[in-house]
Amino acid sequence: MNAENEEEPALIAILTPEGSFSPSWLRGKTVAPVPTGSRMDTALIRRIASGCRAVGVQHVLWVLLENRTAVTGDETVSRLSVDLGHADVPPPSVIYTPDLQGAVLFPEAGYALVGGTDKFMASAVGEGTDAARTRFRRYAGSLERRHPGLVTVADSYPARQRAWSHPSDVTPGSSAARQLNLLDQLADGTCTAPEFAHAWWEARRASQMNGERIQGPLADLFDHIFMLLEDYEVEPELREPGDLSAAELSAAVRDVWGHFRRAGAE
Predict the structure, then answer these.
(1) Cis before residue 92, ω within 30 degrees of 0?
(2) Bridging pattern class, strands 111-116 and 93-96
(3) 3-state secondary structure the chain
(4) How confident is the model at residue 69 (pLDDT cuts 50, 70, 90)?
(5) CA pair distance 6, 254, nearest whole angstrom
(6) CA–CA dist 21, 78 (Å, integer)
(7) What is the C-alpha separation between 39 and 203, in angstroms, rounded?
(8) What pLDDT score was predicted for residue 1?
(9) Long-range contacts of 178-187 (CB under 8 A, 24+ apart)
(10) What's the CA gap between 247 and 260, in Å, rounded?
(11) Of 119, 124, 128, 78, the residue nearest 101 (C-alpha)
(12) pLDDT score for 265
């Protein structure tokens, strides 16, 4: 039953009778395990609120499983604000959006599973799904003696791709490859500074949403470009004193990219 609104989707739309995410719900979605405490903590609540705001929902639905052994679709569903208000949410619980774009399964103390559409996950798991899975693997390993079950969870959600350290590592067609191509285009003058800035931010967002991971020299390069773009405003009327001009941005990016290539970091 639904305690507040008969039209709200029942839990069976998200979970299997055994209490795991339903394969039908998971189609077109990704899942990342994240650490949490004995209750839904501040970090997890922020993830929920961020994901909800990204998909434009005004409230979430909460089901306390109460140690039931099966999901029947007749559970009591409570409505909460996206930041959970003053609710003290213990495990086993499920929080999900009314439009079913995102959900958080909190089966036991120590971890939760955040799942959803690309749009929901890009904000709820802003570091990227692969990065979250890699961090959870380290977390699980550090607690293996006390909580060996966390390693089993980590094994169930491995990173989908290895991290890229050099341009030669990057998979062709990826968003990171697009960012590298943009550096070449700006360097050889086939794109303008505004075109570069717009396309770079778009590719960066896509890279994060796709769970692409970079590290080492390539991460340093992209961080440097990110900082330069932070000091550049595409719209002339919005520029402030001290912001880079288009010519200054182009020169700075060419210098960074040229130094990177001369250093043999490829």
Answers:
(1) yes
(2) unpaired
(3) CECCCCCCCCHHHCECCCCCECHHHHCCCEEEEEECCCCCCHHHHHHHHHHHHHHCCCEEEEEECCCCCCCCCCCCEEEEECCCCCCCCCCCEEEECCCCCEEEEEEECCEEEEEECHHHHHHHCCCCHHHHHHHHHHHHHHCCCCCCHHHHHHHHCCCCCCCECCHHHCCCCCHHHHHHHHHHHHHCCCCCHHHHHHHHHHHHHHHHHCCCCECHHHHHHHHHHHHHHHCECCCHHHCCCCCECHHHHHHHHHHHHHHHHHCCCC
(4) low
(5) 59
(6) 19
(7) 36
(8) 41
(9) 178/203, 178/206, 179/203, 179/204, 179/207, 179/222, 179/225, 183/225, 183/253, 183/257, 184/257, 186/250, 186/253, 186/254, 186/257, 187/253, 187/254, 187/257, 187/258
(10) 20
(11) 119
(12) 55
- Condensed to tens digits (0 to 9), the pLDDT of residues 120-149 reads 999 999 888 888 888 899 999 999 999 999
What is the Rg, in whole angstroms, of the alpha carbon atoms belonging to the chain?
Answer: 22
| Beta-carbon-side half-sphere exposure of residue 26 (alpha carbons within 13 Å) | 13
List the structure tokens of 105. 């399964």
Using CA atoms, how far residue 230 sits from 203, 225, 226, in Å, is: 15, 9, 6
Tallying the residues shown for the chain, one arrives at: 266
Q: Are 164 and 266 in contact (CB under 8 A)?
A: no
CA-wise closest residue to 214 among 203, 222, 202, 206: 222
